Amino acid sequence: MIYIITIDGQPYTLHLRKQSFLPQNFLVYTYNEAGSLHSESPYFMMHCHYQGYAAEFPNSFVTLSICSGLRGFLQFENVSYGIEPLESSARFEHIIYQMKNNDPNVSILAENYSHIWQKDQSYKVPLNSQKKNLSKLLPQYLEIYIIVEKALMFTQFRLTVTLSSLELWSNENQISTSGDADDILQRFLAWKRDYLILRPHDIAYLLVYRKHPKYVGATFPGTICNESYDAGIAMYPDAIDLEGFSVIIAQLLGLNVGLTYDDITQCFCLRATCIMNHEAMSARGIKIFSNCSMHDYRYFVSKFEAKCLQKLSNLQPLHQNQPVCGNGILESNEECDCGNKKECQFKKCCDYNTCKLKGSVKCGSGPCCTSKCELSIVGTPCRKSVDPECDFTEYCNGTSSDCVPDTYALNGHLCKLGTAYCYNGQCQTTDNQCAKIFGKGAQGAPFACFKEVNSLHETSENCGFKNSQPLPCERKDVLCGKLACVQPHKNAYKSDIQYTVYSYIEDHVCVSIGGQVWCQQPR
Fold first, then answer.
1. pTM, 2 dp
2. For a Cys staple, 364 with which of 211, 271, 349, 443, CB 3.0–4.6 Å?
């Protein structure tokens, strides 16, 4: 579809393609006056949403709804425009305006935010062993549940973000939304554990309007697949527009999938502003993820913490996007897709311009396709085991160029001579978990430490919930509560986005961590 519009006397030709982000079984939840929950499958005009670019600026980005007039955004290098129908016009006239925030100096995080989420995930100088594990990105799927109280940018990662359902608190809020974002997050998590168990989602967000919030968001970094912490709060202040709010959502979701905020001396992207930049919320124009964000995400999805993103979503969009040749994903009407000219490793087999096989070859992309354009023989390894006891090596089946689905030992299977359990393909020993957080040499703490740190009625130190209240761990269950470690390092573990507790118990210095990240907006 093509539209021609005029801005400041200059015509722009918009090339648009239909898009969709809603699943077939998309539901909207509401509450009646009696407080009973109702769900319905509302009618949406799914053919309305389009994305594309302005031909005069190939690096531009346009997103529009074309039903009942044009509504949306036009983003150029460092300027953004909004477009919407002129309600009083009978001649299909529209108003186009440059988008600006009322407060151009607004920022996301507190000024003292300087540390990344985990010290062993530095993107500045990755270890050789880490580089080997950062394999080519495979398609990932994220289902998000949105709740709106009474008052999407991830294509670089090959991450499909699907809105699984929407809940509107139209009569009264189900929890108190007073206080700062981090206060609301704790209440939202407790409510979510009781009421969202059966609704499919990977993460749930509560959107809250607040005229002058202290913080514009709160979430737990790197916990997208952790059911105890897969939630976030996003506040919509008066001082920003919809473009700025979309950056808040993108940055919070970025934190959920392992990203950290950019160090502008080390990180760069091919646009004026990178998404994970502290100033992105007030910046205009196109924003993309930086080289640092790409490394953070590759590292995150290579770990077991990202397992939930690897499942194929059952929430297929009502209108599938048109296949895109060169994106490395084999889609409908494509015989192969080896990526773009630079990425393609099967140029003898696959035409990267048309995504068609060359001649009579058997395959042209995929981990089970050989350099001779033939299918790998049955039993050829295509995905190595990452845990000797809890994860399995997968093999080619001889009939497809794709590897078979990832499989691993049943959760709860004993490992390490019966001292630990498998969970999502990883032997969850306390030594491994402590070393991952505090570095080489850190180990699981003695039983007395676990007993001490898990004896309180606190949200992050518990063994379950009852009536939305955290329960202390019984003696037999203390190892299931908060992690406790001992570390040989002299330097204290420091982080601006989580608290650290040191306890001297039975001649041992025990250390545990917890807390959440929040985003701050100066008053």
1. 0.55
2. 349
